[in-house]
């Protein structure tokens, strides 16, 4: 394999640039020509593909976001769109791809291989940490630390005003950010999609705190919780516990996606980027590079897409015990 291309797709995650850098410099080391596809599958369809070299990725390891941009592509979901993308790759002689992204990215790559036999190896880039086949995904550690910084600041004002704060963090289908923020931030409770915690349970936890003369409380809510988002949950709690309860809601939103990646994310992204590249050069295809128990492994896209990565029961239990 003499020519490969790298692209980022789906939601951006801190550390994606470190991953791109590792792929490009790894390709240079192995004597492989590398291209960058701008704006993911959209750029592949439009032929927005640029040559990259070691100088192209200088001074980006510390930057958040992605220098290759990211976009979701409805056109790539069609056979016609994928044919256009294939033709653009053929024009440049590109023989393989490294895709940095999540489930949607890998689903598209698998379909693309089945139709046109262009092999792809993925690197898991998503702050949600919801991909089977790796202990941690690129961007998760930074997102947790960003959210935790906000939780710490909110606790100061909650304590000053004797308030209950419901803080919503990202995680439509995954409670990983929420559970780690709850433990590290000393939250009284956490609500995540993987573990149903009812409004009655939250009310009971808060009441027990008040009975012990606790004057303020923090509840972390993953945006995908079954009881609803933080605004909905807070209203249900207020309706149940009375108007005198001073409740505030903070939704952290996209602040969790940006910012300077942590050292952990830079190292993880570099390891996964190089691992994905070298796997591709060895003939791996339709797999995602991941790190499990500190070992680099490759997991079939089908498994990363279909298998769930559960939140540890030990972590859920920790929140309950440590909040008493």
UniProtKB/TrEMBL annotation:
EC number: 2.7.1.11
Active site residues per record: 128 (proton acceptor)
Residues covered by the Phosphofructokinase domain: 3-278
Pfam families, per the entry: PFK
Binding site for substrate: 126-128, 163, 170-172, 223, 248, 254-257
Keyword annotations: Allosteric enzyme, ATP-binding, Cytoplasm, Glycolysis, Kinase, Magnesium, Metal-binding, Nucleotide-binding, Transferase
Protein name from the UniProt record: ATP-dependent 6-phosphofructokinase
Source species of the chain: Aquirufa antheringensis
Gene behind the chain: pfkA
